[in-house]
Design a protein that fits this description.
Layout: E1 7-11, E2 14-18, E3 26-27, E4 41-46, E5 49-54, E6 57-63, H1 103-116
Antiparallel strand pairs: 1-2, 2-3, 4-5, 5-6
Length: about 120
């Protein structure tokens, strides 16, 4: 089941959210600077707040709580994730979590990946 705002694009500059036809889209701000060093990037939606975390710290956000989108739920399932071919980054590992993720679990995952890839 997909809901409004469930179509995200994780770009090299940030996270952009598509709400559908006739609905204002949004992207996180500020733009995330690229770096040749290894990093742990996390795109997260918690209620109507979208954040991009870099190495366990929030680097950009988009807050839609002041103007929430009122769109009906689309009844379909999407069995896969699409990784585009226009990326400027090398991807070592991808984890997709469906459903709520407690802050502590997210921190544990980020710390595990930082230790695994020797990221300070």
């Amino acid at each position: 089941m997909a809901t409004a705002g469930s179509e995200e694009q994780f770009l090299t500059s940030g996270l952009c959210v598509s709400y559908g036809l006739g609905v204002t889209n949004g992207c996180t701000a500020p733009s995330i600077p690229l770096s040749p060093a290894a990093h742990v990037y996390v795109a997260r939606r918690k209620s109507d707040i979208f954040t991009v975390r870099v190495d366990s710290a929030i680097s950009a956000s988009l807050d839609r709580t002041a103007s929430p989108v009122n769109i009906n739920t689309n009844m379909f399932t999407q069995p896969s994730a699409f990784i585009g071919t226009a990326s400027d980054m090398q991807l070592s590992e991808l984890a997709i979590v469906i459903g709520p993720t407690p802050d502590g679990d997210l921190a544990t995952l980020e710390n595990h990946l930082k230790a695994k890839y020797l990221i300070p």
